[in-house]
Specification:
The complex is a heterodimer.
Chain A (H helix, E strand, L loop, with lengths): L1 H37 L8 E4 L4 E5 L3 E6 L6 E6 L5 E14 L20 H20 L3 H21 L4 E3 L4 E4 L3 E4 L5 E12 L12 E8 L3 E4 L6 E4 L4 E8 L6 H12 L11 E13 L5 H6 L12 E4 L2 E4 L8 E3 L5 E7 L4 E9 L1 E5 L7 E5 L1 E7 L2 E8 L6 E4 L1 E5 L10 E4 L10 E4 L7 H25 L3 E2 L12
Parallel strand pairs in A: 11-26
Antiparallel strand pairs in A: 1-2, 2-3, 3-4, 4-5, 5-6, 5-14, 7-9, 8-9, 9-10, 10-13, 11-12, 13-24, 13-25, 14-23, 15-16, 15-18, 17-22, 18-19, 19-25, 20-21, 20-24, 22-23, 26-27
Helix pairs in contact in A: 2-3, 3-4
Chain B lengths: L5 E3 L5 E3 L1 H12 L11 E2 L3 H6 L2 H4 L5 H22 L1 E4 L2 E4 L4 H27 L5 H11 L1 H16 L4 H31 L3 H21 L5
Antiparallel strand pairs in B: 1-2, 4-5
Helix pairs in contact in B: 4-5, 4-6, 4-7, 5-6, 5-9, 6-8, 7-8, 8-9
The chains are: A alpha+beta, B mainly alpha.
Chain lengths: 491, 223
């Protein structure tokens, strides 16, 4: 009788326990959610106002930035709001197509070099000198073969002349449009930043018409530190408050080398053993980085002459991943930035000190729809620079992406005191033609670590070993479960 | 001996109790459930029993009530992780920017998959068939610790307001404890659902844990 009573009591306790857990679980979101929704502090501290007819001014407590109102190429003049006498400049000069063909007379093909620019004149000469003439001499061809080779080579030269665009797409020569300035609003209703974009809409060079509406620079500026995730990949990075995040988007680039690939294939199928090592095209984004001491050069002067703004620059030193590089000279050759860091940081400096401004970029770019439609891949970005007396010419090199889309995200900002490095929100970076992030939710610190996973494996494996040890010792199978509620269990 | 398996109702009619039902099913299916404690030794002290929730699992033979309970637990876990934007990958959680519905579906997908994978592994290794509904009920109940975690995770920032490092440390520690508990409960669930000894069911749990790690590698979480 007492066993039945005991059973009933246990059953009741069990029911009460289960109900309590379920009720607490259900009640938790009801308790939590209203307080998150009400937690809207005044965060409307970013203003974008017209500076004059050519410039817009973005104001925030950390960074103030100027950028063209539309029509001109993307460039930014920015400074730490608490230190307005030192301004920093980034100018997006253009895109350069270059060839990564390996040859002993050319520098490392991983990094951009102006010697590799995809110019029809230069490369038709090189193809002839390096590959066709030696073959002609080497094989002592008969007249018929020689004529065939000459005819194909001639056709290739003509094709290159007719089809190839210039290697450099000059952003200054193109017409750009600036989108509306949109707010970035989090799921809790808080305004955490602004987003806008520059789009190349017109170019006077007919062979670059494919670039119209296919090149875009998306910009996002946050007033709080966020973590951005790249959709379709596992890539994520932190964007600090006061940092201006940019995405360079290049869609459907027409590659010079593609137009002669079929002719080279023809040559091979005709029996000419032409092998061009690493015959790949690449693209480089050219940006100029400069800084001006406003006590020496008034900002108005710099704003009125944006094309010659570097002339006022005082950046004689730049810090590339903590290495000081002198800019106080000029070289004909680009120097590679060899780093294994996932985020490459270039810090403005002068002879005596490191300045607050920086330019940085993720050492990977996202390529979509290449090699196949729907593919999403992360590819390495290699950087090289050239000192130019008072400023840095930086070249960010991207691999071939066929008819797909490349997205790469440099950013600019300042090192300011009091910026929390802990993200407050997780933002899904916009893709395609979108400008505003598709999702902004509260940041969740990573719960998963490899150490915790190993701990889990160790504990469970330990329990398994323990069970087998007990079984071996007692020579009987082990059940840790009790037989029934009213039966005494054995140890 | 017989009194272990039968009980009397209010009208003093004899009927099978929980153990009796288990015995009946075992005889019918040819599987000896560990809950019957036949021919094996039990480590049935109080902590062990509650750690493995054996008093609960032994009642899952009365399927309907526990089936509903296990579905409620799975639904609670799915909603909780979606509210927290925590994306599950079997026993692990990751921050996510997916929509509410996607996370709910993922949660349910992983636990239903776990049930199906376990069913297949147990058949392949031990040739155990039947008892699928009870196994599902048990697996659902075993999901309770990980289903409760998102709700605890919602509470931590309020408890440790202003101490984000403590909050993160505590969240990870609690999650690890709940993960261990879930894995032990899953072993117990296989034990009851499929009539396996615990030393065998924990091997199935380890196989599923390693499959989970393979998925972590494939999805780039261990990069």
């Amino acid at each position: 009788m007492s066993a039945v009573k005991n059973l009933k009591m246990r059953r009741n306790w069990l029911t009460v326990l289960a109900l309590t857990v379920l009720l607490i679980s259900l009640a938790t979101p009801i308790v939590i959610l209203p307080s998150s929704a009400n937690g809207d502090e005044s965060s409307d501290n970013i203003k974008v106002l017209p500076e004059n007819e050519h410039w817009l001014r973005l104001e925030s407590p950390i960074v103030t930035a100027l950028f063209p109102r539309g029509g001109e190429k993307p460039m930014f003049i920015w400074w730490y709001t608490g230190q307005p006498d030192q301004v920093y400049i980034v100018k997006f000069q253009g895109l350069i197509e270059w060839l990564a063909i390996d040859h002993s007379s050319l520098p490392n093909s991983d990094y951009y070099s102006s010697l590799r620019n995809a110019s029809a004149e230069t490369w038709s000469e090189r193809f002839d000198d390096w590959y066709f003439k030696p073959m002609e001499q080497q094989y002592m061809m008969n007249m018929q073969m020689r004529m065939m080779l000459l005819s194909i080579v001639q056709r290739m030269m003509t094709e290159m002349e007719l089809m190839w665009h210039r290697p450099f797409l000059d952003f200054s020569a193109a017409q750009w449009s600036l989108s509306d300035i949109s707010n970035i609003t989090a799921s809790d209703g808080k305004r955490i930043g602004v987003a806008f974009a520059f789009t190349l809409v017109d170019t006077p060079q007919p062979r670059f018409q494919f670039a119209e509406n296919n090149i875009m620079l998306r910009i996002r500026f946050y007033n709080t530190t966020v973590q951005e995730t790249v959709p379709g990949t596992s890539s994520s990075y932190t964007v600090n408050a006061g940092e201006m995040k940019m995405d360079l988007v290049i869609n459907k680039w027409v590659w010079n080398l593609d137009s002669i690939k079929s002719l080279l294939t023809n040559l091979q199928s005709e029996g000419f053993n032409i092998s061009i090592p690493n015959m790949k095209s690449r693209l480089a984004l050219w940006v100029n980085l400069a800084s001006i001491n406003i006590t020496r050069t008034p900002l108005t002067e710099a704003k009125e002459q944006p094309e010659a703004i570097e002339d006022h620059s005082t950046s004689t030193v730049m810090e590339v991943d903590d290495h000081r590089e002198s800019m106080g000279m000029t070289t004909a050759q680009e120097e590679p930035i060899e780093t294994s860091h996932p985020l490459v940081r270039i810090q403005f400096a002068n002879q005596t000190e490191t300045l607050a401004g920086f330019f940085r970029f993720v050492a990977q770019a996202k390529i979509t729809n290449y090699p196949n439609q729907g593919d999403v891949n992360m590819v390495p970005v290699k950087a090289a620079f050239r000192p130019a007396w008072t400023h840095m010419k930086l070249f960010l090199a991207y691999p071939y992406f066929g008819n797909g889309t490349l997205e790469h995200d440099p950013s600019i900002g300042v090192n300011a005191p009091g910026i929390s490095p802990t993200p407050q929100y997780t933002v899904t970076a916009p893709t395609g033609n979108a400008i505003i992030p598709s999702s902004v939710v509260a940041y969740i610190p990573p719960l998963f670590t490899t150490q915790l996973m190993i701990a889990l494996i160790v504990v469970i494996s330990g329990v398994a070993l323990l069970l087998y040890a007990i079984r071996w010792r007692r020579r009987t199978p082990v059940n840790m479960v009790g037989p029934s509620t009213h039966t005494k269990t054995t140890g | 001996m017989l009194s272990d398996f039968i009980t009397q109702d209010k009208s003093r009619k004899y009927a099978l109790n929980d153990r009796g039902r288990l015995l009946y099913r075992s005889l019918r299916d040819g599987n000896i459930s560990p809950a019957l404690n036949v021919g094996s030794e039990a480590l049935g002290h109080r902590l062990g029993r509650w750690l493995f929730l054996s008093p609960v699992f032994s009642r899952t033979v009365r399927m309907n009530a526990f089936l509903v309970g296990s579905i409620i637990i799975l639904a609670l876990g799915a909603v909780g992780s979606a509210l927290d934007n925590l994306e599950p990958l079997f026993f692990f959680y990751f921050p996510s920017t997916r929509g509410f519905e996607s996370i709910v579906l993922m949660w349910l997908f992983y636990w239903v998959s776990l049930f199906l994978i376990a069913d297949v592994i147990i058949y392949v290794l031990f040739r155990r068939t039947g008892g699928d509904l009870q196994l599902f009920s048990c697996v659902g109940i075993a999901a309770l610790p990980l289903a409760v975690f998102p709700y605890l995770y919602m509470l931590f920032p309020y408890v440790y307001r202003g101490f984000p490092a403590t909050n993160l440390w505590l969240s990870r520690a609690v999650l690890l404890i709940l993960q261990v508990w879930t894995l032990l409960l899953i072993s117990s669930a296989f034990s009851f659902g499929k009539g396996l000894r615990l030393d065998r069911s924990i091997i199935v749990t380890l196989i599923i844990l390693y499959l989970n790690i393979v998925l972590l590698i494939l999805f780039g979480h261990l990069a």
